[in-house]
Amino acid sequence: MNLKKIYSTKMFTATAIRHDLIFKQASGTSRGVLTKKTSWFIKIWFDDEPEMFGVGECGLLKGLSFDDKEGYEDKLFDVCTNINEYINNFHSTLKEFPSIRFGLEMALMDIRGLGQRLFYKTDFTAKKAGIPINGLIWMGTEAFMQQQIEEKLEAGFDCIKMKIGAINFDSEYEILKNLRQRFAKETLEIRVDANGAFEANEALEKLELLSKLDLHSIEQPIKQGQITEMTSLCAKTPLAIALDEELIGIHELNAKKELLETIKPQYIILKPSLVGGFKASEEWIILAKKMGIDWWATSALESNIGLNAIAQWTASLDTTKYQGLGTGSLYTNNITAPLEIRKGHLWMNDDVFDMKMFF
């Protein structure tokens, strides 16, 4: 379906639907403990074909998303009310609302695929290949973190990502040290995610300690916005640094280029809900590749609707790196989707989407 040809002859209708996702168990990060996550969904359809609709998820994370601000819901409903005014220019007009921009981008792509939640044709969507993903270890007590590690190893994960920065650093280091003593780096890739927990004046010392464990990388060791400090850290670090939160709120191409040229990280991490969607993410990728900076994608705790789209997009980019796409099993009330994790890989299966809430 060529949407450009029919935009001028057909009219869209859109609505927004809220869904509160409930965590099976409280999940800890250095920014606090998560028990619930609210997603908004944009449902869009042609006036003369209401039975065929597209759905896009606006994955807003409280305290982290750039558009977590007063007026968010008003903007979301304005987009739905005036959908026909937004569809041709939303990438520019919704830059200040990256999660809504992504939700609309996803919904329009879904319409293009005739409302089948099929965004790209790849070996992944053909069920011929899975996407290698990391096993995520949430913060908590030492016993709880160790329990999660054993569960991920038993499930066949070859890459473990452990969130750090909430409990005592020495305790976290011991957990990582014991894990590395059990598995060489050739057998198990270990990543850590500090979510900006380290103080700038102590970060390098901690990175030097962590580097002794043959870790793959550390995500966002210090809080975003400390450009001078992060630049110095990336230049001196013995452990590869991946920028995550640092990308949030950077909308313009020149600003993206300037950030990467200044900080020169080893990796960037792309969360489409937080940076404005697939088009915006691909701008980061193109710039990063020119500078020799690598990347991987991560979900931002979306439901299976958003996770499905992000996984399909990631698979279309032909990357072999471990991705952060294993969050579909976190919730008690997620939307049933044809996704499952098998031996550390995300696969599509023969299940169908349960779309009852959208009718």
List the helices and strands and how they pair.
Blueprint lengths: L2 H4 L5 E18 L2 E15 L2 E11 L12 H10 L1 H4 L3 H4 L4 H15 L18 E2 L2 E3 L4 H13 L4 E5 L5 H14 L6 E5 L6 H12 L5 E3 L7 H10 L4 E3 L9 H11 L3 E4 L1 H4 L2 H13 L3 E4 L6 H13 L22 E4 L2 E4 L11
Parallel strand pairs: 5-6, 6-7, 7-8, 8-9, 9-10, 10-11
Antiparallel strand pairs: 1-2, 2-3, 4-13, 12-13
Helix pairs in contact: 10-12
Describe the structure.
The protein has 359 residues and is α/β, with parallel strands linked by helices. The chain folds into two domains: 3-112, Enolase-like, domain 1, CATH 3.30.390.10; 131-358, Enolase-like C-terminal domain (TIM Barrel). Helix content is 35%, strand content 23%. It is built from 13 helices and 13 strands. It has helices at residues 3-6, 72-81, 83-86, 90-93, 98-112, 142-154, 169-182, 200-211, 227-236, 253-263, 272-275, 278-290, 304-316, and strands at residues 12-29, 32-46, 49-59, 131-132, 135-137, 159-163, 189-193, 217-219, 241-243, 267-270, 294-297, 339-342, 345-348. The chain has a seven-stranded parallel beta sheet. α6 links the parallel β5 and β6 (159-163). α10 (253-263) crosses α12 (278-290). The protein starts with a helix and ends in an 11-residue tail after the last strand.
List descriptors.
single chain; 359 residues; alpha/beta; Enolase-like, domain 1; TIM Barrel; seven-stranded parallel β-sheet; three-stranded antiparallel β-sheet; 13 helices; 23% strand; globular
